[in-house]
Amino acid sequence: SPGFPQGLYSVLAGFVEPGESIEEAVVREVREEVGIEVTNVRYFGSQPWPFPNSLMIGFTTDYTGGDLTPEPGEIEDAGWYTADDLPQLPPKISIARAMIDDFVSRRGLDSEDPETPA
């Protein structure tokens, strides 16, 4: 995000639009922000968030296709990473970091895995 400190990476985020389910919002936001298709949306957890008096709700998905194409003005960069090559991550108190740490620990990611998002 352009609002993040230089070099800091996180997970994608967005808002639910009127008439849209949370699961539909996840699929739409991923498509809009980085141009890839995902399925199998699964709840991870939630965290109160002060801006703007919101609740962050984390989900994981399965990658089904497309090339990473960051949305100009919204996403500065996006990439696929291995566990031993992760960029600077959000603080451990954030749900984004909890999601990344959980994904890495559960999957035992290695450099041969083509589906290693961060």
Describe, in plain words, how this protein is organized in 3D:
The protein is α+β, with helices and mostly antiparallel strands. It has one domain: Alpha-Beta Complex (Nucleoside Triphosphate Pyrophosphohydrolase), CATH 3.90.79. Helices cover 22% and strands 21% of the residues. It has two helices and two strands; from the N terminus they run H-E-E-H. It has helices at residues 22-34, 95-107, and strands at 37-49, 54-65.
CATH fold annotation:
Nucleoside Triphosphate Pyrophosphohydrolase
Cα-atom Rg, whole angstroms?
A: 14 Å
Going by CATH, the architecture would be Alpha-Beta Complex
Question: What is the approximate shape?
Answer: globular
**Which structural class should the secondary elements be placed in?**
alpha+beta
Distance between the termini: 14 Å
Question: How would you summarize the topology of this molecule?
Answer:
Elements: H1 22-34, E1 37-49, E2 54-65, H2 95-107
Antiparallel strand pairs: 1-2
